[in-house]
């Protein structure tokens, strides 16, 4: 395992862990409440990691001060949407690397031994699994994400289409954008409204599988490549009292057998993810989309449909040709029986300071009803 080393009265070491794929720090110095933000930012930009030994709340203030020095947007953003996207992504990666140099040490039982530090043991157990029995160094930015994920998991996300809350786990894409859920909730079911079996491919939190079950589908088989997502979906299904209707499996995209309805809401941007935490948004080369389309015809029962739920943000950003999805549908031996569209309602639509605002404000999310040609 990767290990960081530093000197604190004597040479010390700890295991390095990064869910977001931050590189192993090669040089680590101890920092505390006396560390000026300008010095911290300079050291971080030079590649030196700062192991925090001061007050927890002061560490958060230092992180905010470093963030202000990194900046909030790319200067002179290019006019080409694709170039603007890649420039913004490079900026975000740079920001993550710099801010990720402020580290904290989790003790062998996931305790954070800093002044005024919260009890993070349960949050870390849920994100990382049981303690390894040795100290672990993580970026403070990551730990704050772990703490935030615990709070989201506890309170859940209200899903109007379900009349209930979905509780996302760490690293699982949360259904905070309800428009795609609403599309699945209102699209007419095939077979005159009677569906014995449905597949939900890439289920994530299990929200679409739950919507289908609530709509009267006899049996829903939900798949996901990620172990965290499968655990999350099973927990939500149990919480909603749908364990007898929804079965969660994986890691394959398609389960065995055929279905009267196959639903897939793949990641919307065909770009390589930086880490597994990005899998809910980025799908390198559109691999999941292609896998869904190429396997659909042979997995549908007679009279069945495939529902592709997809945003056109990739097209508006110039990351995918406007005709690529219809062409892929036709190449898979499918036809479009109908298409339902909706506009996003999330906060970024109104954020004019977002470098990608023009594309986000015009975005359309569609449910493509597909049948064999």
TrEMBL record:
The keyword Transferase applies. Pfam families: MTS. One of its GO terms (biological process) is methylation. The keyword Ligase does not apply. Residues 194-311 form the Methyltransferase small domain. Keywords: Methyltransferase, Transferase. GO terms for molecular function: methyltransferase activity. It comes from the Bacteria. InterPro entries: DNA_methylase_N6_adenine_CS (IPR002052), SAM-dependent_MTases_sf (IPR029063), Small_mtfrase_dom (IPR007848). SUPFAM superfamilies: S-adenosyl-L-methionine-dependent methyltransferases. This is Methyltransferase. It comes from Streptomyces tibetensis.
